[in-house]
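Now read these lines:
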Amino acid sequence: MLDSKKFRVLKSSAVCLNEEEIGVISKVQKLDLIEYYGVAFEYKENYLKNPEAFAISPDLPLESGIKLKMGGSQTFGIFQDSSSDKWGRSLIRQQYAGEQLDEYEYLVYATDFDRQGAIRIKNEHGKYISEGRPAYFPKDEKKIVSIKDLKSNSGYTSEQIKFFTSTGTSVGGAAPKISVIANNKLFIAKLGSVNSFISNPAWEAVALDLAKQCKLNVENFYYKDNILFLERFDRLESGKRVPYISGYSLMNINESEIFKPGYTKFAKKLAEIGAQDSLPELFSRVVFTLLIQNSDDHYKNHGLLRINGNWELSPLFDVSPSLGELEGSTAVDRGTGYGRNILTLLENSKLFGLSDLEGTKIIKRIADITANWRETAQKYISKDLIELRSKAFENVNRERVKELI
């Protein structure tokens, strides 16, 4: 029990794993500080007694008692993963203008049908909060195409905001996107813009296509009318949701540390939780990331699914060749500069369950495939724009690979 002399519970909701109620999350206020809020979570005893129970987040060990995270921007990793991100939060702020919004509200107001992973939130009446509804493709195609060309939500009408809000505030990232049912499956639709100099969804499609050619585990996708459709990998055909945590939550790091731990540390953490079978895949993804200069590889863009009682890397997502600064990118290891040297990765191949020879073969194979990036890009990008990102592919790590030949 919380000490009522120190804390006041303002709101509470039931936390479910698929249909099973496993705990309670509350918004709390510290009484000696007027504007100091946080969240409290407690597992239900029935869940703790379940032999198949598991800790839903590294910062929520499977044990009795209330866990606290104080400060308006503080919450537990799993609830940040299950909450809205920058794009969704901008919509929620407009929908609930004037209301005090902290991590608790961003969690419960995120749409339920597309919430990441298997976490669901119920109110005191046992009803799922903010159920929402997806768009349907091709039924809503005209509406989707008509709004995708606006650059930011400052240009949207109230009707368009309502459409965005109902069709998904849970999906992550900062760019406009909605959740769509197509071919009876749930997809994220990333909206490109004809006003954009170069379409980011198109370049992401290029990267995913190349990754698939490299035999990486890639989410199913297709590209049409400057919209990238990404099939949700945390949903089964039965409708059951697959538990998910981000690399951010696995590493249990603060927002300010999001880019700091290197891939070698990530590999060690995977081994610690019994995900050794994912280590060669992680090695291959890092090789791919370095060779196409994917600089948006922070830990929110890595994820794990719980399959048959074990954690494993989710399919690759949010990957794109970049001309941006590498300062915020994830390093191979904590070293000099940005620590993005592919030869440093090879030196650490044993951490990824590989011999030096196996690591070398993977690097050469992926380098050979991605060297033909222009051929793949022509499927998604107009020829006059392809060379604008050539420096992303013709980078220093591609030169370093030649030292291995």
